[in-house]
Amino acid sequence: MSDKPSYLGLLNSIAVGEADGEELFCAWAAATPRADVKAVLEAVMLREGEHAKSFAKRINELGFSVRPSEAPSHASRMAIARSTTLADCEKFEQLNIGVAPMGTDVFARFMDDLTIDIHTGELMGRYISEERDSNRMLQGCRAAVAAEANGSADTSAIDARLERIESALAALLAKQ
Questions:
Q1: Does residue 158 sit in helix, strand or coil?
Q2: Are 100 and 140 a contacting pair, CB within 8 Å?
Q3: Could you say which of 45, 58, 146, 169 would form a disulfide bridge with 25 (CB–CB 3.0 to 4.6 Å)?
Q4: Which of the four CATH numbers 1.20.140, 2.40.160, 2.40.30, 1.20.1260 does domain 8-175 have?
Q5: Residue 84 near residue 118, CB atoms below 8 Å
Q6: What is d(CA 67, CA 14) in angstroms, rounded to the nearest whole number?
């Protein structure tokens, strides 16, 4: 067995969290009556599952095993996702999914550990990029569902475009 990498805990947290995410989005996709919402949820679900397995595989390659844990809120979040009485708009709100990030990017410090090896770094970079994209997809879906629920579905395209412009501006400012 090799020395324990300093970033092993982070890899484990990602593997466990992504497995939980896969389960949540799978349950929600099965419960939604809307084909457009289901398509987004399934795309995100597949990514979550692939991330969980990729990180578990990397942990195994490093000579360790995933240490499963269950978040205290997992059961209640799953009940919301499985619900056939809650509207998708309510699920987005109650699960706090598809919300534009405020303040510091949660992924900004993931690569701060200078001991991360090249294979883990590649995996982490792809994961971060896909997670940011998944969040943009969920934000757009949430905006469309909310606009329709509020009777203003024609503004969702404008809101989504504004979000992309704001994200691009934030990225440009961050590079300065």
A1: helix
A2: no
A3: 45
A4: 1.20.1260
A5: no
A6: 11
Nearest CA to 130 out of 30, 60, 50 is that of: 50
Q: Which residues contact 63 (CB under 8 A, 6 or more apart)?
A: 1, 2
Predicted pLDDT at 156: 57
CA distance 56 to 68: 10
Helices of type H across the chain: 8-31, 35-61, 74-82, 88-95, 118-149, 156-175
CA atoms within 13 A on the CB side of 132: 14
Q: The tokens 């998708």 sit on which residue?
A: 88
What are the C-alpha distances in Å from 25 to residues 21, 64, 132?
A: 6, 28, 16
Give me the helices (H) in 62-155, please. Answer: 74-82, 88-95, 118-149
- pLDDT tens for each residue of 130-150: 999 999 999 999 999 999 888
Q: How many residues does the chain have?
A: 176
**Taken in order 101, 104, 106, 111, is the CA torsion positive or negative?**
positive
Considering the chain, what is the average pLDDT of its residues? Answer: 91
Can you give the pTM of this predicted structure?
A: 0.82
